[in-house]
Specification:
The protein has 194 residues and is α+β, with helices and mostly antiparallel strands. It has six helices and four strands. A four-stranded antiparallel β-sheet has the order 1-2-4-3, covered by helices on one side. Helix 2 runs antiparallel to helix 5 and helix 3 packs antiparallel against helix 4. The longest helix is centred in the middle third of the chain and has 21 residues. The N and C termini lie far apart (51 Å).
């Protein structure tokens, strides 16, 4: 399958299992480091959780339950387990925002997003499956503190990576919007002369 077809057929698959060989994981991670990066700030960082780290990650998330979560401690833990236990590799994606650099913050955010997207495309091109999840965990100050993150470090997502996908659990295909809803020609944006 060509890289373009891989991208066109890409769909997050939240229910995956099966470990990825270390050499392929290294290739996927190397792809993250090729993201566009103005002034070579390299603002992205990654915390890798393999199967042997899963219980530790679930405990960190469960013990960071916000008071206003609306869930009991047991229910919050169950939710974390449902979302994470089957997925063999979880990458916690981070952005170290450098507010003193001559690079606008938005460009640093875009670079971090591109690094994650590079891993998504690499994993899919190698025949693996993945998901990129944010949600409440990404914005939880208690979890950030337990991970030892500084005040300028943001969690930009949780990337799940795995080998197999149960056909019965495959996410439904997503219809893509027509190009004209998102792309237009420059001449359509110019004010009339005169």
């Amino acid at each position: 399958m060509s890289l373009v077809n891989t991208i066109l057929q890409r769909k997050s698959q939240p229910l995956i299992d099966g470990e990825i060989p270390p050499s392929d994981l290294q290739d996927i991670f190397q792809c993250a480091l090729t993201a566009p990066d103005h002034k070579r700030l390299r603002p992205w960082r990654f915390i890798v959780c393999h199967p042997e780290h899963k219980a530790m990650l679930i405990e960190l998330i469960a013990s960071s339950r916000p008071e206003d979560s609306g869930l009991s401690a047991a229910s919050y833990r169950d939710k974390a387990e449902r979302k994470l236990l089957a997925t063999p590799h979880i990458v916690i994606c981070l952005l170290d925002v450098n507010r003193t650099a001559p690079v606008p913050e938005v460009e640093q955010v875009l670079s971090a997003g591109a690094s994650i997207q590079n891993m998504v495309v690499a994993a899919e091109a190698l025949g693996y499956h993945c998901f990129w999840r944010t949600g409440e965990w990404a914005y939880n100050p208690a979890l950030r503190e337990k991970l030892g993150l500084g005040e300028h470090t943001l969690i930009t997502g949780f990337l799940g990576l795995g080998r197999q996908l149960d056909p019965e659990k495959r996410a439904a295909p997503v219809s893509r919007p027509p190009l004209e809803k998102h792309f237009s020609r420059l001449d359509k944006h110019l004010a009339p002369a005169g």
